[in-house]
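$ run holo --ligand "zinc ion" --emit tokens
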Amino acid sequence: MRNNERECVARWEHAFEADPAEKEKYYLTVAFPYPSGAMHVGHGRTYIVPDVIARYQRMKGRQVLFPMAFHVTGTPVIGISKRIANGDVQTIGLYRDLYRVPQDILDRFINPMEIVRYFSEEYQRVMQKCGLSIDWRRRFITVDPQYSKFIEWQYAHLHEDGHVVKGAHPVKYCPQCENPVGDHDLLEGDRSEIIRFTLVVFQWGSAKVPCATLRPETVYGVTNLWVNPDVTYVRTMVDGEEWILSQEAAGKLNLQDHTVTVTEEIPGIALIDQTVSHPLSGEVSVLPATFVDPEMGTGIVMSVPAHAPFDYIALRDLQQQGKYTSIRPVPLISVEGYGEIPAKDAVERAGIRDQNDPGMEALTQEVYNAEFSRGKVFEKYGGKPVREARDDVAALMMERYGSIPMYEFDNRQVICRCGGRVYVKILHDQWFLEYSDPCWKEQVKTQLERMALVPPEVRTEFDRTVDWLKDWACTRRVGLGTKLPWDPTWIIEPLSDSTIYMAYYTIAHRLKAIPAENLTPEVFEYIFFGEGNPETVDRETLDRLRNEFLYWYPYDYRFSAKDLISNHLTFQLFHHRAVFPQELQPQGMVVFGMGLLNGAKMSSSKGNVFLLEDAVEEFGADTVRMFLVGSAEPWQDFDWRNELVSSTKKQIERFWNTVDEAKEAEGTSGIDTWLASRLQHRIESVTAALDSFQTRQALQEAFFGVEADLKWYRRRLPEGASGGAVMRDLCRAWVRLLAPIIPFTCEALWNDIGEEGMVSFAPWPTVERARISPEVELAEELLARTVEDIESIVKLIPIEPKGISLFVAPAWKQEAFRIVAASTDKTRVMREIMQNEGMRKRGREATDATKQITKLVLKLPPELVKQLVASSLDEQAVLEGARQFLEHEFGVPVTVQNAEASTHAKASGALPFKPAIVIE
Ligand SMILES: [Zn+2]
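-- output --
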């Protein structure tokens, strides 16, 4: 670590400890990390962007709370610890080689709490190295006894209000761990959903042949079944009945409340050409299909070629070989936009060649969606819309024809962190958070409407999540965490014990001093609701805790990555609604994009990560911060590339040198007013960008914008001058504008330029309206554009220039410019111009000029056009005043005159704000 970084980390150690104050508060939180491995640069942005906002709000004069804690609930560290104890080569490799845990510490990892201890220390250390302005007094882990008391109180509350219910539900389950698993526990398939299929049961002699379907209404159109001839099926007894299934399906049904025993194996080939029947589809044959996957459903598929593109194509492929030619698709649904046989239509329209065509998935989805949203079953089957008929037929089959539900994942590969396959299991006696409750959903939706969501596009995703959220298994048999207070054989799982801890942060540091056994539910009732009369904690302490909570709560913004919308970010809204009153509900959320490393998704388990600490060591903390902030807006995905990070480092060095040199700046110069005026705009834009969390935009303005202004300023200084005292003012503001983003550099510079105290607490620069000079800025804009035009002409001509003549547009063209700019319909502008007596007299000259002026007005930034119209810029005086500068720039004599005073052929081409240029 560099010296100035080490110095800052020491100065900041306790600086951001925030207690209630007279000032307005700003409370922001980030989803707390699970300390089971080292932080990588992807984590870096998750915490650095909120830190930029925290630092900005602090400088704006707010009392800012930015706390941090560690989430250790659940089984992940237990699993890691077991794998290390068992000598698992991959896990040991990850911890020893990628995370570089010293061997003596690694040996201790057979105790899961040692992993937690080691990495939470490391997280804090690396976060401090990155300059995160966190109040570390509040740090806790989710198995601290005081925190458990808080969770017990929360769950007693939820239970009392009927939000936690007991029942039987399908959940993700790892047989190897003998435990239900949440998204946190998965290596793969963490966004998979549980889907309910209906088993349509066909009869084959004494045996039943079940097919899993999402479209039970299509049973009327079944023309055959598909069986994979290469797969070995099994004859089983399912709840006392004889069923034919794939081996995999037998195992799955066993976990779904059925008693399944296998009696014999049947090769798939033995089932081909057998006849099966169902009361709703009659007798059909079993046909061979190698696309049938024994891992999907029962491994036997019912074929509806009129409505399922896969079935249609598979049948056509067989028939092209001359087989089963008597089978015809049997349509049963009419849908607008498709012919009699929708699957045939879709396949032919898409030009699908055979069943291996990559377009098949999408096509299947297209027909499925069209039929579900607009389709109707034929009159003879009831004539109802598909969405109604589906439920009716399913209910009928459950009641009369032996159908049962079967649960599957929408995504096939769901793998537990232990490495085992995850299945759907029906759990009994399980505790569920009843997120399906429509009243609770409604309350959350109302709250969402009141909240600020950044970026606004995430609102639909939140609404959708609230709609589809089903009951959530909130307890586990094993793992770290808090026991369910009324049924202590259960432990509350990680996504369920991390929903209102933002409230806990407000008092976390004070609770550490109170023995956990004194933190009764009554104590929390008093702190959070001001109710009751608890006796285990003295009244003075209780009132202090309550006041601190009320000062900070509700939180202002929560920051998290977008993959948490479908669980954590929405869950916490549900819990806040259930526990806290209206005035304490969350106010806003900022949702982040994902991090890429050299274009690929960062993933610790796949080794595609760059450790944050390595980045800080190699490039410096400010470089890492500036790169992470500058490469994309928070909600966009960002890509870490070492070669780009290096150039960021040079930019910071440039900034340092400029500020350092400006310390000596003295005196004044004509261009000073311009620089001061520009600075006011930069301050305004940086402030606006940070107010809307556009950290990238803020950096663009604060760094590159100011740098561009300085470049022009220096160019315009008289020969030999090195910048006036205005540079010192500028740097005083500049250091503060960049302080939230590169605080280490700015902290050092702040004292270097003679300011007292820490820049972290210096007042944010404010716009001084009196220093804005629109006329001066316009004049410089004219000059800069003219210089640019001259440069591009010089580049084009083959001769060495001997002199430059500038011709400024006459007054009547300025008048035409005003008319054109004011005209709302640019196609009618010529008519407007010609209504003017003076213009009309000029004839062709006026029409030509109008055409060119119209083009120019459309090309210039609208804001600039507005300023030009409002100003009375004397172009000739401006250019004349800059004649010395121009002569110095181009090394030749320069003359400036009114175009009308010249007979030069090119003079007539002069336009307002665009003088004609002649180079000889
Ligand atoms: Zn497992």
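-- notes --
The pocket of zinc ion is lined by residues 174, 176-177, 416, 418, 420 (CB under 6 Å).
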